[in-house]
Amino acid sequence: MLLFVRERLAVLAVPKTGSTALAAALCDRADMVVRAPPRLKHVTLRRFRARLLPLVEEAGITGIETAAVIREPEDWLRSWYRYRQRPALDGKPTSTRGIGFDAFVRAYLAETRPPWADLGSQARFVAPGRDGRGVDHLFRHDDPDALIAFLESRLGGPITLPRSNRSPVMDTALSRETRAMLRTARAEDFLLYEALAAP
């Protein structure tokens, strides 16, 4: 999570949407950079507004707007799957080593998930709290130009995003049946993503 006081902007770090690259590009300009622990780095909109924003406002900083990036839901899962294939997780409960992508997605959709498929939802991450206010500025992961144009306008000056956390290329085929199950079970994620203008 990044906070820019003068610009009155908080950039939330939705997991697997390029938040590490964004932090690398903007950390020198930000007044607050939360890199760890993951629960704070990836604070949801609701938690940000309920817990962190009041602390900021107590310091006299008001009018903070939020920005976030979301990814096409199947591609978001594909990124998680590849990320959990990395050798550092070999032998750990969250490793997807030896598990096919189709099986990973089905496990993610199951009522009881194994640790390697226990993930949240992008729609829930950016869901409004009690005030009913959603993210003020929401961008698609596959349209970085829109995000960069917004940030350059808001923060002033050019921004170059480095490539970070690149996952290995591998087979991530999904059966038609599993894809249909995913679209039905995570309809809110697809609707949120598809409501944003395509690049």
From TrEMBL:
It comes from the Bacteria. It comes from Rhodovulum euryhalinum. This is Gamma-glutamyl kinase. InterPro entries: P-loop_NTPase (IPR027417).
